[in-house]
TrEMBL record:
Organism: Sagittula salina
Protein name, per record: Cupin domain-containing protein
Domain Cupin type-2 residue range list: 48-114
Keywords (A to Z) from UniProt: Metal-binding
One Pfam family it belongs to: Cupin_2
Length: 121
């Protein structure tokens, strides 16, 4: 495990990554995570999805998530419901809720994802 520190990170220093289950240029930067800061209770990422990019439908046993859309437009699937999400929308996802997001717009979909705790049980 990485040593815990108080850190200041510059977003340009963190590489874009495409995590498992993410497709079509669904990229994220892990700004606060165990591997980048040693955090134990929070994972904070910025994500940018090109048109048609998506994360597959999935569920977390114990994690809560917040998505905050910064720019663009997409479809958010939560349980059996599909909703259009746009700039300034904030989505809370409770543990045990199946969910997915995809860029259905014309430009990039950019959003923050905050997850706590970091690991599923």
């Amino acid at each position: 495990m990485t040593e815990r520190n108080t850190v200041i990170r510059n977003i340009a220093e963190e590489p874009w990554q495409q995590y498992p289950g993410h497709f079509g240029s669904a990229l994220s930067k892990a700004l606060v995570a165990p591997e980048t800061t040693g955090s134990q209770l929070i994972d904070y990422r910025i994500s940018s999805y090109q048109p048609m990019a998506y994360v597959e439908r999935h569920v977390h046993k114990v994690q809560e998530q917040v998505y905050h859309v910064l720019d663009g437009e997409g479809l958010m699937e939560i349980g059996d419901e599909r909703r259009v999400v746009r700039k300034n929308d904030v989505i809370f996802i409770a543990p045990g809720t199946w969910h997915s997001i995809q860029n259905s717009g014309l430009g990039d979909l950019t959003f923050i994802v905050v997850t706590t705790p970091v690991t599923d049980d």
